[in-house]
Give the backbone structure.
Amino acid sequence: MPKIGMEDFRRKTLIAATLKTIQEKGTIDIRVSDIAGHANVSSALAHHYFGSKSQLIQAALRHLLSDFRLAVLKELKNATTPQEKVISLIDACLADDQFSDEIVSAWLIFYAYSQNSMEARKLLQVYVRRLQSNLRYYLRPLCGHKTEEAAEVVGSLIDGIFIRQALRIEKADANYARTLVKECIQPYLARN
Amino acid sequence: MPKIGMEDFRRKTLIAATLKTIQEKGTIDIRVSDIAGHANVSSALAHHYFGSKSQLIQAALRHLLSDFRLAVLKELKNATTPQEKVISLIDACLADDQFSDEIVSAWLIFYAYSQNSMEARKLLQVYVRRLQSNLRYYLRPLCGHKTEEAAEVVGSLIDGIFIRQALRIEKADANYARTLVKECIQPYLARN
Amino acid sequence: MPKIGMEDFRRKTLIAATLKTIQEKGTIDIRVSDIAGHANVSSALAHHYFGSKSQLIQAALRHLLSDFRLAVLKELKNATTPQEKVISLIDACLADDQFSDEIVSAWLIFYAYSQNSMEARKLLQVYVRRLQSNLRYYLRPLCGHKTEEAAEVVGSLIDGIFIRQALRIEKADANYARTLVKECIQPYLARN
Amino acid sequence: MPKIGMEDFRRKTLIAATLKTIQEKGTIDIRVSDIAGHANVSSALAHHYFGSKSQLIQAALRHLLSDFRLAVLKELKNATTPQEKVISLIDACLADDQFSDEIVSAWLIFYAYSQNSMEARKLLQVYVRRLQSNLRYYLRPLCGHKTEEAAEVVGSLIDGIFIRQALRIEKADANYARTLVKECIQPYLARN
DNA sequence: CATGAATGAGTTTTCATTCAT
DNA sequence: TATGAATGAAAACTCATTCAT
């Protein structure tokens, strides 16, 4: 009685379990058996579907990035003017749910992991470049020759807020973070 | 080779070797034998002097932080006015030698590690808070009620530039980075 | 080879192998790999099932004690009068198979080990107290106010015979040992 | 300035430190460095004087035995009749200071060690045989054909009391122990 | 005489991975 | 499809022992 669509279900479950385990342990240095435990399957099954631990982790990273990408796209859809688009990007990056301890932690861990894994590095670079390119595209009509600078500031500021978040004990205020970034770019818009 | 006073020398060498190994491998997940190899000693010696791998890594983190702290203090000494002090802080954080691939990589890796190790987390928190407190202190006469915001922006921006640096392939321009931050806070100063 | 239900079999085999290794080496200071060798499995498997070397040794000790306990209970079943019960206890403690070099050696080693391991100490204390309590219970109707003394003598004598056995080269005579103890308590019975 | 008689002093100190360490750790499985620490010297010195760890432990065992032998001889000197001699032997074996936790523990540990070390086994066998021979010698005029049995009972009882002592938590009563043994052999004397 | 320095040789422990069922 | 069973390979850690000074 082989269940139809089991493969798909198992892959999804295992990826979710991987992210959960990474967040729980606070490191990429986790055991396959722990992941499998979270997914309520044997660790042999994880190998069956993903071939190896590192491929499973790759898949989890890819999932995190694609999830984020979808959130950004969704947010962008509701915006029309460049101003709105920029605001949308900031809101998407610093959205309440992206700002949860778990997500922040996972991002940081993957960033560090990218120092180690060329594969991860490439994936993250694609994401950073795409976001940066979006930012520049929507900032250009607003900032003119300051565009490059403004994009760099916004992008870095967002990442910086993220990384700091990882160190804090107190609950972060996503709303304050968004405001901070928006205020910060005002001068670049004004100068145009 | 048994000359007395070796202990101090070995400890320093081993700490340096640890940082080098972390940077080389791009992860905290390194072998004691690799560290020892870089220090040209047996791995048993590393255990002899530090007790365990994690204690050696702690020591390396502590060293990185204290090195950074000394650089900051040195830079601050040459500044007198609040403006100069703030500039000094930015310059120290984004100094050419702090901006090397190795250092950037080590910082990022330790940031991620802090998700895992309470000890590391505390050490990094102390550093972040101290820097932030310095920033606020010198920004206050310049920014008034915008101080909190300005300090947050500067601090986060610096961290963000750092983290992004870790993803880049092209050589970073430390000078451009410093200028970026300095320009970015101009509006906060002007508004006072 | 992966047949289900192996776990129980392996645990038993590994415990037996542990006792055998202890007896062979004459010390508790044995290698997991030697134990595993006797059980024809990898040392990793020993860790898989028992977690650590000391837990495996604990389990072996527990097994030895429980085996002994069962032998005592079995012997007691065939006795009805207090006299018979006391004889049974002595016979059980100094039974031919308990008196083999391997068992004697293991007991002595565990006794010494109990100086080191609180866990082992507690287990052995329970056994000693239970046996002593049994002895007193059945001696009381026979010895009256001399019960305490008689129980102490029998218990100590048995242990002493055991410990001496460990030092001998010549094969011990279990039968002679049993007679010795039985004769020794006669006076305590008579005095009642 | 080589100090005269240093060698002798160091050997004594190291042997004492060895016994102390064995008692403290409750096992023969101790570190040379711990012994050296107790003697306030470097572990290299222990090797200098004893060649190896096992030779140092041998020496400590030899010392324990010879100390005990001296105590027995001293006690025997004050006795004249066979009765007194037997009493002396019992008193010497169960003397207050031989009955201390440390001594009891050391004896037990050495007994177990003798399962492992042929050297230790031989030393202990010599001691047991000598004591047994003494016992028989003085018991013969008192017990006649029961001598063998009586000697076995006394010897084993003493060892048994010792081994049980090692398991107890409550402080033992050496006096009670001596009385117990003395009462126990009365019947053997009477029967003669 | 004495030791700080150093290490080789082991031993435990961990885990991804394989495989028969 | 799924897993219990098993292990090889690697890594941390320990410690007796050696040696130059």
